[in-house]
Amino acid sequence: MIFNTGAALLDAIVLAVVSKEKDGTYGYKITQDVRSVLSVSESTLYPVLRRLQKEGYFELYDKAIDGRNRRYYKITETGREKLNMYVKEWGNYSKKITDLFEYREIGGNEND
């Protein structure tokens, strides 16, 4: 992707990914799901997960899988509220950008 991803957009994407799983999901799966839409490293994502958890947007729990503990992240009600705010803001923002791009395609400046 050629566009930079700001912290708020990354937070929104992580919240959206975690919210899709009713019982939560684990770090590696979150990383893979986020990476399916963004080019981002694990070293970038894990601090985001920790910060969002610290801010009360996730609950954490451990689950034993094949003899190993796996840390799960589950969205909280506060996290859902934050995600809903991001979704609303994204709708407004993306509509404005799309409107600008569509204007450019239709008429815009003929000298370009």
UniProtKB/TrEMBL annotation:
One Pfam family recorded for the sequence: PadR
Q: Which InterPro entries match?
A: Metal_resp_DNA-bind_regulator, Tscrpt_reg_PadR_N, WH-like_DNA-bd_sf, WH_DNA-bd_sf
The Transcription regulator PadR N-terminal domain sits at: 14-84
What is the protein's name according to its record?
A: PadR family transcriptional regulator
